[in-house]
Amino acid sequence: MASMRDIKRRRSSIQSTGQITKAMKLVSTVKLQRTKQAAINSKSYFDYMYKTVSSMLAKAGEIDHPYVKGNGQLRKAVVMITGNRGLAGGYNSNVVKLLTGSELKKEDLVIYTLGKKGREAMNRRGYELSDDYSSMIDAPEYVDAMRLSSVLLNAYKAGEIGEIYLAYTNFKNTVVHEPKLIKLLPVDEKGGIEGPIEDDGKAYAPMNFEPEEEEALELIIPKYVTSIIYGGMIESVASENGARMQAMDNATTNAEEMIEKLTLQYNRARQGSITQELTEIIAGSQAQN
Amino acid sequence: MADNSNTFKVRVITPDRTFFEGEALMVEFNTTEGEIGIYKNHVPMTVIIRPGVLTITGEDVKKAALHSGFVEILQDSVTILAEVIEWPDEIDEMRAMAAKERAERLLSERDPKTDIARAETALARAMARINVIK
């Protein structure tokens, strides 16, 4: 049996780890509330954006525009959103796994990373990386998404990349987060994303576009790409905090369990040593008589 | 909606918040095709924003500087998806003035190196801000 001192030392070390995980859980709970609210606030914008673009594309089947038809280039860009920090359960590795396990061929890909963890993981696996945008993910702003999407669209227009994907974590609710890979460009005619869009059942009124569809497409698609990247950013941040909160909650519970077990062991050892001492004293006094 | 009132629903949403939501008699803003004003029962239409002043006339008149985005017009509602929009009290007048002067100077110098389109947008944006404050 381990000595009393050893058990005591182990217990106090677990106790301080437990305190740290507890504090981290509290911090991520607070952050989760804030980021969740941001995700909710933005939802209506994205729903509308999606509805408009898909109704436009439904009409625009004949349009011969590179945003719809593609430009023939095989290289594909992936915007990959992970966290800058670990200790968030499977949050980072799920996105990595999604991408490495997808049908996209490694040789064709060039990865634009947001989040150091994803960048490190893809670098280890030998993927080609483009610029790093990790600092954006600390506090996502719409202008950041604008900057990134203009970089992507310029590369797309120049024919350097032929498809643009987004890998992020969808925030379903506080406990369910699901890694997702969606195609941004070229937009499919049925609409590029499958999102949590509620169909309100209203038949779509015939819509006029001013300027004409083709020109409107040219102007709206960049906004569409920007908004989806921004949406991916804030949903991922909310998911990260949710995942970290869960992971830290589990860690705290485990620490408490271990402390309980060790306390029991400690008390037994203590009792044992007292009994032993008593036996020794009694034996000693008997021997004297 | 079967009521006989002349108001319709206006929603202005940005990526971060719902900027404005309410009933209005008329909405005016600047589009790629020129300035337009919308009353109830307008033909369904989607238009693209140019920097300008957004005026919502309801019980009172509200103004804001609307810089980019697009608008979905339906018969009984107008939804403005604004990428960038500001209330007058969010605007820094000194900065807007400085930006206007800078853009005007760039445009008048006719330097082949300057990005004319960008300078023009900057000027339009600054003008929108200044006009809203006035």
Instruction: Specify the structural class of chain B.
Output: alpha+beta
Q: What is the CATH level 1 assignment of the largest domain in chain B?
A: Mainly Beta
User: What's the overall average pLDDT of chain A, rounded?
Assistant: 86
Gyration radius from CA atoms of chain A, angstroms: 28 Å
Total number of helical segments of chain B? Answer: 2
N- and C-termini, Cα separation of chain A: 34 Å
Number of strands of chain B: 8
Largest sheet of chain A: 5 strands, mixed
Instruction: Specify the number of helices of chain A.
Output: 6
Terminal CA distance of chain B: 36 Å
The CATH superfamily of the largest domain in chain B bears the name F0F1 ATP synthase delta/epsilon subunit, N-terminal
The succession of helices and strands of chain A, N to C, reads HHEHEHEHEEEH
Q: How many structural domains are formed by the residues of chain A?
A: 1
The CATH class designation of chain A is Alpha Beta
